[in-house]
Amino acid sequence: MFNIEEELKKLPSRPGVYLMHDEKDAIIYVGKAVSLKNRVRQYFQSSRNKGVKIEQMVTHIARFEYIVTDSELEALVLECNLIKEHRPKYNTMLMDDKTYPYIKVTVNEDFPRVLFSRQLKKDKAKYYGPYTSAGAVKDTIDLIHKLYQIRTCSRSLPRDIGKERPCLNYHIHQCAAPCQGFISREEYAGNVGRALEFLNGNYSPLLKELEEKMKAASDAMEFEKAIEYRELLNSVKQIAQKQKITNSDMEDKDIIAMAAEGEDAVVQVFFVRDGRLIGRDHFYLKTAEGEQPKEILGSFIKQFYAGTPYIPRELMIQEAVEDQELIEQWLTARKGHRVYLRVPKIGSKEKLVELAGKNAAMVLSQDKERIKREEGRTIGAMKEIAALLGLQEIRRVEAFDISNTNGFESVGSMVVYEQGKPKRSDYRKFKIRTVKGPDDYASMQEVLTRRFRHGMEEKRELQEKEMPGELGSFTRFPDLLMMDGGRGQVNVALQVLEDLGLSIPVCGMVKDDNHRTRGLYFNNVELPIDRNSEGFRLITRIQDEAHRFAIEYHRSLRGKEQVHSVLDDIEGIGPARRKALMRQFRSLEAIREADVETLAAAPSMSLAAAENVWKFFH
User: Fold this and answer.
1) pLDDT (tens digit, 9 = 90+) per residue, 501-521?
2) Same-domain status, 191 and 302
3) Which of 491, 515, 500, 516 is nearest to 440 (CA)?
4) With the CA atoms of 11, 14, 16 and 22 taken in that order, what torsion angle do they form, in degrees rounded to the nearest 10?
5) 0.70 exceeded by the pTM?
6) Which of 60, 139, 185, 330 would suit a FRET pair with 378, their CA atoms being 20 to 30 Å apart?
7) Do residues 265 and 257 make contact, with C-beta atoms less than 8 angstroms apart?
8) For 600-617, what is the mean pLDDT?
9) In terms of residue numbers, what domain contains 269?
């Protein structure tokens, strides 16, 4: 039994991270502290004004644990990682998990390429971005290929010059074919240099050159060429128009502002690179009641810049955030150069932050209804299912399904939904080991036993190693198990849980004669459910997803010829005879019912092989 008062006395006066658990052992809050002793004690002191969120959270704390670090900066990094990993209920959570595209120029190669990239690597290449539109990046790269005839192939040059014929890009005039030696290294380097100027925003020389070529082609009555140059000119002008100058200091900066209403918040970010606004994006956050703007902004900065590969030199923010100096230290360490958080008060910079704030408010206003609908489909649907089953709360659901075809090896699937959304990183596949033939109940028993035994062993190992917070996908147990079937599947699951000493609610997704879900089987009762409700739609999505995942795995194994048939266990039956038998009899049942003479009459079969088949089944 965890005694909070006794455990508070053991807290060290050192920096670290603390994790609050509820009665189901779920992590509901992660925080950092300069002194764990002072910070964690504050939550349990009745005299302190904690705010609505903390007051509510404290009522659910069943136990806490902590990790001691060497410094407050190390604690901040660990806090970011644990929040991202566990997504605790009472932390302000960034809902989006976006990655941004870059334009990569492989200047470290003898004949550089211009590529699309989602990652920023330390590989001596030159990167431009991040950009907010993948489509715009691809359009820009296509335009560069047309303008400067830069290669796209992955051939190693100059080693492979002349080894293969030039590709289609050479014939449509989008590559100068350095692979054939049709262009010198110096001339190709000149084209790459002009491409880099273009990416740096120096469009004037190119615009002038294209206008001159267009007029020359028109004067020479080469109208097709003139049209081609005109289209290129318009493409360059379109890209140039998007790259608006925002200020003259030519620095990289992100401009960050937010708007909040109730538990919903939107943060707007303007991305400025080399003094040009190259894009903007907005991000949704789920906050707690009474959360202050500085807390929301601080949470956003820590979560967003923990995941993005590029950090600008300056973040211009709406107002000062908590731990501002510490966050600056962390960002500086990540970037390798000094990073500043600044709150502009006057001038154009202050106007830009104000504009970002207005954009955030506008997005929040426009998307309020969409956010509510999305919540209804996810969290609201979970609440409906919990109410139908009489459960207090459902955050994590696991659903299982078995797939097999005509004696091919059975496989199992485990899909996971958290807060009404699929958590694909926690999906798992199982190849059935102990069951021969199509026995769904025995297969399900094996899958569930392996799943929960693995989780219990993982938990035990982590406790022995004293690694709090390091929960894996198997270590987290669900609030509800959903079985793709009725009474039989539910009873199998309940028996497995009883054997392992676990108490987890189990319900079955009962189907009608048309194989459509009609209700839930729970506590020996079939509960009808409104087919028009969001809860019903979520149950259907979970059921379909479990079935899809199992079928997909089974199909992939069959496609690789890795699935085992029961016929393979019969002496004298190889792949050719197995296929011949299945073509002749169509099913294992028909093979089982055939006599020796009928089996021997099948193509490729001998009398001895037929006798072996008959003996196997009888």
Assistant:
1) 999 999 998 877 776 778 889
2) no
3) 491
4) 10
5) no
6) 60
7) no
8) 86
9) 253-367
